[in-house]
Amino acid sequence: MDLWQLKVFVNVIKEKSFSRAGETIFLSQPTVSSHIKDLENHFGCRLIDRLGREAVPTKAGELLYEHAMKMLQLQEKTETALSHFLGHARGRLTIGGSTIPAGYIIPRIIGPFNRRHPDISLSVMTRNSARIIEKVLKGDVEVGVVGAKSTSPQIQQEKILKDEMKLIVPAGHAWSGLKEINRKQLTTVPFLARTQGSGTWDAVTRSMKKADMHPDRLNVIATLGSTAAVIQAILNHAGVSILSPIAVADEIQHKRLFALEIEGLNLTRHFFVTTHSKRTCSPLALLFIKFIKACYKTPEI
């Protein structure tokens, strides 16, 4: 048994899935299964049961999970303490990012952050905004960057970037030459929605309700689980959608997609650095928060 096997085990329990755990720690599902089998051989008992599509701990697994969490936390604290004693920051930091931050905002600063702190390794977990906030609440990640405002008193958020969402249409669409449409026009075309929990979709529906326009009036032909899927559907003329221009900057530059305003609809939102209000951030997390705030200190970036 080693600490890496325990980390694999802990991630399977947290994610309730071998495949999702593998995605989180960048391992294939067979490799994850092999590590779990080695642990079960070591302890001589079954640690995880597969119930339908979920992986759940046995009673022995629950006991191991409790102690494994303590061991992994102690490992992290030990490495951090020694690094600070030696005068430099070193270690691994897992950051949670919703779709736009994980795909476009955080990657922009990984290079500069690595040059400033070469001994800190970043791992970016991608989920929708609701799931990332949930991960922060549970203590699975220290820092999240999301596009949705949380109402939980246990969540602390700070704006780092303003986002002006737009209606996105493909080249050749009847509206591709326009700068703006009205709200009534929006209800006349096939619309591509995001799943609940998406920060983008939450911001869209909230803006529509403030403008006395119920989202049910949209002609939603598909609800998709990622921004990338929405973009591909628009490019293939399945419909239109409201997205962050950050996600389609390249397509807009090359005139494959076009961005329009919607009259009477305020589609401004912000991205937030998100932490737990009751937990003290580690030195590595504080370094990352300070760095990303400095990089995006002007809200128009």
TrEMBL record:
Cross-referenced Gene3D superfamilies: 3.40.190.290, Winged helix-like DNA-binding domain superfamily/Winged helix DNA-binding domain
One Pfam family linked to the record: LysR_substrate
The HTH lysR-type domain covers which part of the protein? 1-58
Note the InterPro entries from the entry: LysR-like_Sec_metab, LysR_HTH_N, LysR_subst-bd, WH-like_DNA-bd_sf, WH_DNA-bd_sf
List the SUPFAM superfamilies: Periplasmic binding protein-like II, Winged helix' DNA-binding domain
A GO molecular function term, named singly, is: transcription cis-regulatory region binding
Q: Coiled-coil segments, which residues?
A: none
Which keywords appear in this protein's UniProt record, sorted alphabetically?
Answer: DNA-binding, Transcription, Transcription regulation
What are the transmembrane regions? none
NCBIfam families assigned: LysR_Sec_metab (NF040786)
PANTHER family referenced in this protein's UniProt entry, alphabetically: HTH-TYPE TRANSCRIPTIONAL REGULATOR, HTH-TYPE TRANSCRIPTIONAL REGULATOR GLTR
**In which family does this protein belong, per the annotation?**
Belongs to the LysR transcriptional regulatory family.
Its protein name is Transcriptional regulator, LysR family
